[in-house]
Design goal:
about 160 residues; alpha+beta; Aminopeptidase; 2 domains; 3-stranded antiparallel β-sheet; 6 strands; globular
């Protein structure tokens, strides 16, 4: 709970959240949470694998660079993933490494067989990172990563 200030900061950062324009508070892409709202949110996210949330940390300085999450989408019957990298830390490999770590967690610790995401193909940098990790975009627009495909790519 004492570390939620970073989440509040991350979601309110205009540069970080500009990819989300049209959503968020007032369509700004940002979400402006109070500490109390963040704490309430977090209490509902401590239930893996239905809901899982974690910061991504820089191993050199120990500071957070973004976050990752898994949430079960009842309508799609899929575990959906999310990742946000702080704008000032983008382009440094954190998204790819974060997605790999999240996939390992999903497949190894939580026993999932596939994970998915759904963002527009126009988000070119995100598309490139997800494909590097092994996600495949289906005709319905979803990006899917199976445990089998992930292990083929990332097991030596």
């Amino acid at each position: 709970m004492d570390q939620l200030a970073y989440r509040v900061k991350l979601l309110a950062d205009k540069d970080t959240m500009k990819y989300n324009k049209g959503y968020g508070d007032n369509g700004s892409g940002c979400y402006y949470l109070t500490q109390e709202q963040a704490e309430h949110w977090f209490k509902n996210w401590d239930n893996p694998p239905q809901r899982y949330y974690s910061y991504l940390m820089n191993s050199l300085d120990g500071l957070p660079v973004g976050d990752v999450n898994i949430r079960y989408d009842e309508g799609r019957k899929l575990h959906m993933v999310g990742i946000v990298i702080e704008a000032s830390r983008r382009g440094q490999g954190y998204a790819e490494e974060g997605l790999k770590l999240l996939a390992e967690k999903a497949f190894t610790d939580f026993g999932l067989n596939e994970i998915a995401d759904d963002f527009p193909i126009s988000r070119i940098a995100a598309e490139r990172v997800f494909k590097k990790v092994g996600f495949i975009r289906r005709l319905d627009g979803l990006l899917i990563l199976t445990k089998e495909d992930f292990l083929k790519l990332h097991t030596k």
